[in-house]
Amino acid sequence: MGSKLSNRRELLKGGALAVGAAAAGAAATRAFGQGVAPGAVSPLNFADNEAPQIPTPPDQLAYGIRSKYIKSIRIQEAEKAAAVTARYDEFGLTLHIYSPIQDQVGTIAPSSLHYFATTKGTFTPDIDPASHTLMIDGLVDRPRVYSLADLKRLPSVSRFHFIECSANSHNATQKTVQASHGAHSNAEWTGVLLSTLLKEAGVQTNGKWVITEGAENEKGANTLPMNKAMDDVIIAYGMNGEPVRPSNGFPLRAVVPGYEGIFNTKWLRHIKVVDQYQLNMNDYGHLRRDAAGAALGMQWGPKSVITFPSGTQKLPDKGWYEISGLAWSGGGKVTKVEVSTDGGKSWQVADLKNPASPKSDVRFGLMWNWDGEEHLLMSRTTDDVGSVQPTRQDMAKALGVAYTPQFATVGTNNTIMAWQVGKDGSVTNGYGLIT
């Protein structure tokens, strides 16, 4: 298709085959059902200083595609051992697929570029939504089985929430922000609150936990505390204005705002109310010795990352730039983002570019006049419960352990990230330079 369009442009520019071009324009007009009024300028006519205009190809009318000049793509996780990657590739499976957040504008990740991960060793199931059902049973008075049509008859919500893998930014020494922080995306999710379904089913007094199970071959499942299930969990059938895409759980997924990504069960088919925590396929990494530690380990703290300028990007010359990035918190709304251009010695409050909503991304920006010298850029988030994004040193202190340069956080890593701007304008990873 691309080569054909290019050839057509060249023919039109040179004035050749004018009759053929006119015939093509007439055929295109008939195909698209749009006439050209007498005396009107044809879309195939253009001045020498204008870009050539051609009829919209049918595939773009049926389902829109982006401009051929936009090249952003997702990438596979970079840190997995070659042997592990080969094992997945052999069976056509994928690991974590990272979103190109360095190219994102605003806060909403396009569905086609949204981060996703699979249950360990699973294939993406091919599910017919007309026959898919969601069962709710266990410690309930009225077990239910819902079709997708049944769910769409119930009161719906549409909310913006991020989903982020617990391993995101554990690879913070990567060269690019996509490789270090790309296991995170923000989207608009539409569906039914889980609390609505649980109230219909009638949770019994000893029902303290909820298990969500997917329909994939590995039957990935997670255990949620009842207070979270009755709070803001969405059983989503919509994502960014269209049905949830297969890689993100079509036709149903659980969206568990603020919790680690693995709790957002995809291809959802079964919800069971139980009286105690149960170890399931996806819960193996979330066991803690005490209940408080387990609960806190599930939820993301305040976090941010600068996406421009970031690793492998380059500032062409001195002057004004907007330092821009994303901020979020699993505990509530982002209320403030601060940016440092001197490695944390001083901080300036950045502008928030969109209204903050709970457990959702905010775009921040700070105008900065680069003087051509070396700078270490950092950002930190404060949320509406007063939590502040920590450094690794802060995290070690909070955990009561000695800090070393090799210190790695456990569970969700929401520590401050840094990018170093060199005198030549090149931007490299500065994570190890934070003091």
Please specify the SSE layout and strand pairing.
Blueprint: H1 2-14, H2 18-32, H3 58-62, E1 75-76, H4 82-90, E2 97-98, E3 133-138, E4 144-147, H5 148-152, E5 157-164, H6 177-181, E6 184-193, H7 194-201, E7 209-214, E8 221-225, H8 226-229, E9 234-239, E10 242-243, E11 253-255, E12 268-274, H9 291-298, E13 303-308, E14 319-328, E15 334-340, E16 348-349, E17 351-352, E18 362-370, E19 375-383, H10 392-399, E20 418-421, E21 427-429
Parallel strand pairs: 3-12
Antiparallel strand pairs: 1-2, 3-4, 5-6, 6-9, 7-8, 7-12, 9-10, 9-11, 13-14, 14-18, 15-16, 15-19, 17-18, 19-20, 20-21
Task: Give a short summary of the structure.
The chain has 435 residues and is an alpha+beta fold. The chain has helices spanning 2-14, 18-32, 58-62, 82-90, 148-152, 177-181, 194-201, 226-229, 291-298, 392-399; strands at 75-76, 97-98, 133-138, 144-147, 157-164, 184-193, 209-214, 221-225, 234-239, 242-243, 253-255, 268-274, 303-308, 319-328, 334-340, 348-349, 351-352, 362-370, 375-383, 418-421, 427-429.
Helix content: 10-25%
**Tell me, what's the shape?**
globular
Cα Rg? 25 Å
The main pleated sheet reads as:
5 strands, mixed
Instruction: Point out poorly predicted stretches.
Output: 1-44
Overall number of domains:
3
CATH topology of the largest domain: Sulfite Oxidase, Chain A, domain 2
The computed structural class is alpha+beta
Round the mean pLDDT to the nearest integer and report it: 84
CATH architecture of the largest domain: Alpha-Beta Complex
Which percent range describes the beta-strand content? 25-35%
C-alpha end-to-end distance: 53 Å
Number of helices: 10
